[in-house]
Amino acid sequence: MEKKRIIVGATGASGLPILTECLKLIRRQPEYESWLIMSESAKLTLLQETDYTVEEISALADEVLKEDEIGAGPASGSFCTEGMLIVPCSMKTIAGIHSGFAQNLILRAADVTIKEQRPLILAARETPLSPIHLRNLHELSMLPRVRIIPPMMTFYHRPDSIEDMIVHIAAKLLEPFGIEVKEYQRWTGI
């Protein structure tokens, strides 16, 4: 049985612990596999935000591609995927996707994902947001199958730790691909 591929991009914004959790959660799903593309900025940020090495994060993915591998599978619409997740997604990457500036494999894979109308989930990370950021995010959100899911803290599920918050947002990011995370606590009303 061929596994369902999720392309996972990571860029230099803050939020690399969420990437780590997403890769772990995808790994728990026997019918899915992750194809990781990390920018050089993401690799630098990883060392600032976590105790993981790039090699340890790469080991959580099923396949690892370099951002300069512009001829790799995800650069083509004929490469079958369930879609793409970019976590974290910098405003530079948002601007590149918005303008169709496919300079590297992360941007090209996102461009292909939009073209093929597959789910593109963007964990947009920046604060405060400028009018330029808001315009780019707004226009991307109007495209079919593009979802902007900023990694925002929530409290209705009464998290006990930062790890609980990370699992919660990682579960929200993976839900559009059909991945259910048992630890995810949905709102059930008051």
UniProtKB/TrEMBL annotation:
<dbReference type="GO" id="GO:0106141">
    <property type="term" value="F:flavin prenyltransferase activity"/>
</dbReference>
<dbReference type="InterPro" id="IPR003382">
    <property type="entry name" value="Flavoprotein"/>
</dbReference>
<feature type="binding site">
    <location>
        <position position="172"/>
    </location>
    <ligand>
        <name>dimethylallyl phosphate</name>
    </ligand>
</feature>
<keyword id="KW-0285">Flavoprotein</keyword>
<dbReference type="InterPro" id="IPR004507">
    <property type="entry name" value="UbiX-like"/>
</dbReference>
<comment type="function">
    <text>Flavin prenyltransferase that catalyzes the synthesis of the prenylated FMN cofactor (prenyl-FMN) for 4-hydroxy-3-polyprenylbenzoic acid decarboxylase UbiD. The prenyltransferase is metal-independent and links a dimethylallyl moiety from dimethylallyl monophosphate (DMAP) to the flavin N5 and C6 atoms of FMN.</text>
</comment>
<keyword id="KW-0808">Transferase</keyword>
<keyword id="KW-0288">FMN</keyword>
<keyword id="KW-0637">Prenyltransferase</keyword>
<feature type="binding site">
    <location>
        <begin position="90"/>
        <end position="93"/>
    </location>
    <ligand>
        <name>FMN</name>
    </ligand>
</feature>
<feature type="domain" description="Flavoprotein">
    <location>
        <begin position="4"/>
        <end position="175"/>
    </location>
</feature>
<feature type="binding site">
    <location>
        <position position="125"/>
    </location>
    <ligand>
        <name>FMN</name>
    </ligand>
</feature>
<protein>
    <recommendedName>
        <fullName>Flavin prenyltransferase UbiX</fullName>
        <ecNumber>2.5.1.129</ecNumber>
    </recommendedName>
</protein>
<feature type="binding site">
    <location>
        <position position="39"/>
    </location>
    <ligand>
        <name>FMN</name>
    </ligand>
</feature>
<feature type="binding site">
    <location>
        <begin position="12"/>
        <end position="14"/>
    </location>
    <ligand>
        <name>FMN</name>
    </ligand>
</feature>
<comment type="similarity">
    <text>Belongs to the UbiX/PAD1 family.</text>
</comment>
<dbReference type="Pfam" id="PF02441">
    <property type="entry name" value="Flavoprotein"/>
</dbReference>
<feature type="binding site">
    <location>
        <position position="156"/>
    </location>
    <ligand>
        <name>dimethylallyl phosphate</name>
    </ligand>
</feature>
